[in-house]
Design brief:
mainly alpha; globular
């Protein structure tokens, strides 16, 4: 849920480039609020011992869909599906080395600390991506409200 939350917050703030493929509903503050709430719940749930591995089929499907949608929204207008395919496939492929690294780190550091470090990396990545495409960074105009 973190990719959707990050993109919807940026859209609601007017921080996406004018020519991106983000659907208009992402600009709604209620959508951003709901996406953030779901992302926070996911981040908390990931620390529970009962949390499934990210490489189970349902987890991979969720990553494919959520990361794909977020990536598609950031793609240039008219190229949503290309962006969605690239982002979704990348998220699924990255799941395996990320899972392996976390399992290895959990042996020495436990589930919660490794999860918090992983969350920090994911959030930093989302912030960096959105900062790089922010309209005032590249002189493009934000999406008009």
């Amino acid at each position: 849920m973190t990719p959707i939350a990050a993109v919807s917050v940026a859209a609601a703030r007017g921080d996406l480039p004018r020519g991106c493929a983000a659907p208009k509903f992402l600009r709604e503050p209620a959508v951003a609020t709901g996406a953030v709430a779901l992302a926070l719940a996911e981040l908390a749930g990931d620390k529970l011992p009962s949390a499934p591995d990210r490489i189970v089929p349902l987890g991979l499907a969720a990553r494919l869909i959520m990361a794909g949608f977020a990536s598609g929204a950031l793609a240039p207008r008219g190229r949503f599906w290309q962006g969605a395919a690239l982002g979704g496939v990348t998220a699924v492929l990255a799941s395996y080395p990320g899972w392996s690294a976390r399992v290895t780190a959990m042996e020495d550091h436990g589930q919660t600390p490794t999860g918090l470090i992983e969350d920090a990396i994911v959030l930093a990545g989302a912030v960096a991506i959105l900062a790089a495409i922010r309209p005032d960074n590249d002189k493009r105009q934000p999406i008009a409200g």
